[in-house]
Amino acid sequence: MKSKRGFLLAEETLKVILAVIAIGFLVFLLFSLYKAGKDSKDLELAKESLNFLEQEINAEKTSVDIYNPKGWVILSWPYQNEGKLPRSCSNLGWDGCVCIVKDVSLGSQLWSTLPFTGNVREKFLENSDDNGICMENSKQLTVRKDGIQQQPIPIEPPLNLKIDYQNKMISKA
Q: Could you read off the pLDDT of 95-147 as tens digits, one per residue?
């Protein structure tokens, strides 16, 4: 007579493996839905923050507080004399723009140690169209993290921006 123990063990093992695969798929699906909703919400917050910044610039305020979205950056185009603009800006005929973009760096904490390298600039340029929102920069203000070098400023709420119209720059206060 053959033993049925081995057959039952294989059958139960197969059920467990299929259950683990199904649970893994459900977790992936739920995470994907959560991420899509969060990205959409963050883009809406970026749009509201940029509209507020534009209103404050038009009112010639010298200080502006930005609260959202956390983990994104504010930056200006074109970068120095490169002349490159995001498509969303160049298609509208703008000479320059200020954008709030999802951070593509390894982490916003690294900005203090890493220079704004060409490869990172290209990623931000691409991300300005894909995961960001831009406004026309008619006053030709440049975003400068340290007040000296043109570099993105990470949004870590509350972010207080100082606007210097004479030197044409936006910097972290």
A: 889 989 888 765 544 444 455 555 677 777 777 777 788 898 888 888 888 76
Question: Do the beta carbons of residue 116 and residue 101 sit within 8 Å?
Answer: no
Alpha carbon distance 151, 168 (integer Å): 14
Q: Is residue 36 situated within a structural domain?
A: no
Residue 52 makes CB contacts below 8 A (sequence gap 6+) with 64, 66
Instruction: Evaluate whether residue 115 is within a structural domain.
Output: yes
Structural domains in the chain (count): 1
Has residue 1 been placed in a domain? no
Return the closest-CA partner of residue 66 out of 9, 166, 143: 143
* Tens digits of residue pLDDT in 137-168: 888 888 888 767 788 888 888 888 998 888 88
Distances in whole angstroms, Cα of residue 143 to Cα of each of 39, 40, 147: 24, 25, 8
Q: Is residue 56 part of a domain?
A: yes
**What span, in angstroms and rounded, lies between the C-alpha atoms of 78 and 114?**
20
